[in-house]
Every structure is written in C-alpha cells, then in structure tokens.
Amino acid sequence: CTLGKHDKGFSARIQGRYSSTPGDAARPTWLLRDDNGTTDDYNTRRIRLTYWDELKDDLLYCVQVRRDWGADEFEIHDLYLSWTLPQFGYITVGQSMVPFGREYLTPDPQLPLAERALAETLLIPDREIGVLLHNNKASGRLGWYAGAYLGHGKNEWSTGAKAMAAARLEYLIAPKLNIGLQWVTHPGTVKSNFQRFLSRNGAAYGMQPLYAAGQVDEDAWGIDLLYSNGPTSLWGGYSAKQADGGAVSVDSNAWYLNLGQYVPFQGRRDALELCLGYQDFDPNTAVTDQLDARWLTFGANYHIEGTKRQVRLQYAIRDEGALDVENNTIMLEYDHAF
Predict the structure, then answer these.
(1) 112, 132, 134, 307: which could form a disulfide with 147 (CB 3.0–4.6 Å)?
(2) Among 32, 63, 61, which residue's Cα sits nearest to residue 46?
(3) Are 200 and 207 in contact, with CB atoms under 8 Å apart?
(4) DSSP-derived secondary structure for 165-184
(5) Mean local confidence (pLDDT), 289-310
C-alpha cells in the first residue's frame, strides 16, 4: 500500500528471478536472495497481494500479504487504517513502513537496480506496528512523517523490546531534485534487520547475547536524494547506525549512488533503461573485515509496460573488505503487476 494514497482497488505482483552465483564455502550473507547461493537456480522471488478500500470518504484500510523466496506460506505485510485529517494530512494506525530511506519507501520495480542498497535494507527498520502522522506531500514542497511504534518487529506484539520513534522530512529544493532527511531511535532492541544480519554471519561482533537480553539501543539517521529529469534518474543516500549494547558498541555506515538512463530503442524512448550503481557498506567502522561490501552493479531493464511489466538483466560485482570470495552474481528477473 502507498501511504497517503486514498482510493480503492486490488493489485497483485510477482517477481521471478534466475540468478547465478559461484559457490564458495563459508561465504558471508547480506540477507539478499542470491548473495550466497551455491548453484544456478530460479526462484519466485516475491509475491504481493494488496487490497485497499475506503470505509468512508476520509477513512481507508489496506491489507497486503506476501510470500517471498524461501517462505512456505503467505504472511501479513501491511495492515492499517488511514484517516484523512482536514488541513493536516493523515494518521495511519497499524502495521506499515517506518519512514526511513527513499529506496525503501519506493516500490522496487520503480528503482533502476533490482536490489535495494544495503544502506536501506540492513541499517533501517522493517515494518512495525504503530501510529504514523504524515502530510500530503503532493500538496507542496515539504513532506513530513512522524511515527511511534511498538518496536517488536513485523507481526510481533511482544518480544520485550521498547518503543521506537522515527521521523522523516522530504523537500523539493528544485523542480527535479528532492532530498530527504530521517532519524530513528529504538532502545532495548531485540529484533532488527541489523541484528538478523549479524546473527546470520556467525553472531558477528559479539552482539547477539546483548540483543537477546534487550540491552542494545539502536539509533540511526540518513540523508537521501532523487534527481529525475525525464529519461534520467539519479538516486543517492547515506545511512549511519549505532548499536550500543553497553559492553559492546558497533558503529555502521553505508552509502550508495544509482543511475537509470532511458535510451531510444525500437522507436520507443520509454522501453530500454540502462542502469549503473555503486555502494559501500561498513557494518563496523572499527574493523575492516569480510562483511564490508563494495559492490558495483550494471545492466539494463526492458519496460514492456512501464514498471508493471519489465525484464531486468543485471550483473553485480561484489568485493569484500577482507578475505574476498567469489560471489559476483548475474540475475535475470521478470516483474509482472496486475
């Protein structure tokens, strides 16, 4: 569901991907679908089913379920009510996106690269249950969001974590350039994207017992930009996080810059999009290790029907900060929305 979008309808989306990644043993993972696969394979990477409707003119509800690669069944992804407040904006109650990160808040078929940057997957919150106030950013240059959440994680009511707070500002500084600034704080974190990342990589940096005890306070901030000029789009962002467990504290940061450029092809100017992106991810600024990621991705997207139906062919060159492994990936993906 799109925050602030008040109408009614049903949508479905499916992504199928074939990828090839070499099979080095004991490789790290950045929680991507194919960064540590050992064979060439096809997977149904993502299925989304969404229904939204207005209970009355100023009240909308939305429910979205998903099944991603590796899951055996569907799960609730979004479930919320959103009220329109005259002369103010909206108040959204339920499970929805925490307002942090331009790529995260943008449906991935609209992005040049098939994978979101690590700055906006591993260093930001996942969906949460809570209350979000936000304005109608289409009504002017300034968009703002302010939310308070249970902090227990998606589809979780109680894990011992404390409440989470988040805020985001967006400003259209020029007709084609938009910048965003965001912040989130989560004391007593038990579960988070960063925690899962550390856990999946051999309980890196000794943080897992502190997370399990609810002793880690996570704070993050970020800045991002989008430049869009007809056939050209430029996406960039920087995120920084501190995970403070008292006895152990880890500082992380990451940045990315992605370019999408449409070129004339077979008489169309909106069909073939060339893409190029680079990102740098440092999960612990105190050390240089195998979890440091410096990735270059390039390829092309063929838009059959805008972003509703498209084919992506992209190649990711993945370098680690130390003990480099063979994990470059070529991916062929088909997106279909209806």
Answers:
(1) 132
(2) 32
(3) no
(4) EEEEEEEEEETTEEEEEEEE
(5) 96
Q: Which two tokens stand for residue 67?
A: 């099944």
Could you give the CA distance from residue 306 to residue 50 in angstroms, rounded to a whole number? 19
Whose tokens are 């969404």? That residue is 50
Instruction: Tell me the Cα Rg of the chain.
Output: 20
- pLDDT tens readout for residues 266-276: 889 899 999 99
For residue 200, give the H/E element and its range.
Answer: helix 193-200
Query: In 3D, which of 33, 147, 143 has the Cα closest to residue 82?
Result: 147
In whole angstroms, give the CA distance from residue 186 to residue 108. 26
Percent of all residues in the chain with a pLDDT value above 90, rounded to a whole number: 70
Tokens representing residue 85 in the block: 């407040």
pTM, two decimal places: 0.92
**CA 236/CA 278 separation, integer angstroms:** 10
- Can you give the pLDDT at residue 159? 57
Q: Residue 310: CB partners within 8 Å, gap ≥ 6?
A: 109, 301, 302, 303, 304, 334, 335
| C-alpha–C-alpha distance, residues 219 and 114, integer Å | 28
Q: Break the chain down into helix, strand, coil percent, rounded to 5.
A: 10, 55, 35
